[in-house]
Amino acid sequence: MPSTFRRPLANRVFVLALGAIVATSLSACSSSNTTAANNSAASKTLTVGFVPDPSWAQVPVAEANGYFKSEGLTVKVIDFSTGVQSLQALAAGQVDITTSADVPVSAALASAKNMVIIADGSRWKGSVIVGSAKAGIKTAADLAGKKVGTPLGTSAAYFGASFLKQSGVDAQLINVAPSAIVTAMQQGNVPAVSIFQPFQQQVIAALGSDAVVLKPAAGTYVQQSLYLASTTAVKNKADALKSFELALEKASKDLTSQKASAVSAVATATQLSPDLVKTILPEFDYTIELPSDLPTGLSSLGQWAKTEGNLPSTATIPDYSTFINRDFLPAP
After folding, report:
1. Which residues form the Solute-binding protein family 3/N-terminal domain (predicted)?
2. Predicted pLDDT at 116
3. Taking the CB of residue 206, how many other CB atoms lie within 10 A of it?
4. In the prediction, which pLDDT does 317 show?
5. Could you please report the per-residue DSSP string of 39-82?
6. Which of 214, 246, 277 is the last residue in one of the domains?
7. Residue 31: pLDDT above 70?
8. 228 and 319 share a domain?
9. Which pLDDT score is estimated for 158?
10. Which of 17, 44, 150, 227 has the most CB atoms at less than 10 Å from its CB?
């Protein structure tokens, strides 16, 4: 801290005048340097909306293993229960990046124009219906006339609707929040659920021998687990977005090899045991990419969203290719 002292009165007026000039100059330089430093730090700071789901397991792994830090990033992660909520935060400018599955993204992009897709973080083929044997569920046919719990408007709801249609079963999908799924099944509020990970595995574990896993008869829905960025972040934080995806790529390699630190990070984020994490990680392809057929798939999901009332019947399905930005993908 600089020392302070008093000058002789004869010199004080001149010194004060000179001091004012110097102080103004130094203040301007200091302010300029501070502003530049702050701008630089802000450009490498990202707020990330995260749905605690193994689909985007790169986020907790990159955070735990120091990959964000090694890329020069300061990352603040905010948890959301569903992709629908995380997309709302992105549209409102509350986060720079968010995670969401393809189904809610297809609906969000029909109205929100301030976001783009910057990566497909994983593909998941593990969707199933989980039923309760005590509730009389043994096969898909037993769902007829019953209610199936699911968070409406999500990838889980899409799979549930597709499963019922494929099985020729007339059942009703009702809204159950992810956080209430396990309790709803344990208390018998619904006889079956369609839910994404980690809740799917939590339901199966909670029901134990009472759990009945119903797989689709033919084919399956492959959930595409997307990363989206605000157009503001694309404009002002391009270098940070590139660094973010490089960190995700490093984390993907750890997930694919089931590195112990990666398993531990996912277990902590999803509240699953490490053994269960090891069981479900192979269900995911963690390659960071943007498949060429993504716009076509989103268009189909957008049409489904209209039929389900998640989009107004008058809504125009956009050209989803205009929302895809490949500038930040890691080099092959």
Report:
1. 45-283
2. 98
3. 16
4. 94
5. HHHHHTEEEEEE--SGGGTHHHHHHHTTHHHHTT-EEEEEE-SS
6. 214
7. no
8. yes
9. 92
10. 150
Is the pLDDT reported for residue 193 higher than 90?
yes
- Do 280 and 157 belong to one domain? no
Looking at the structure, do residues 133 and 121 belong to the same domain, yes or no?
A: no
**pLDDT-derived band at 40, boundaries 50, 70, 90:** low
Q: 1: which 2 tokens?
A: 């801290």
Tell me what the pLDDT averaged over the chain comes to.
89
- ∠ CA 325-254-48, nearest 5°, is 45
227 and 119 belong to one structural domain: yes
Give the pLDDT score at 43: 81
Question: What single-letter DSSP state applies at residue 17?
Answer: H
DSSP code at position 118: E
**Residue 15 lies inside a defined structural domain of this protein:** no
User: Whose structure tokens read 């969707």?
Assistant: 127
Number of domains in the chain: 2
**DSSP state letter for 166:** H
Range of the domain at 154: 129-214
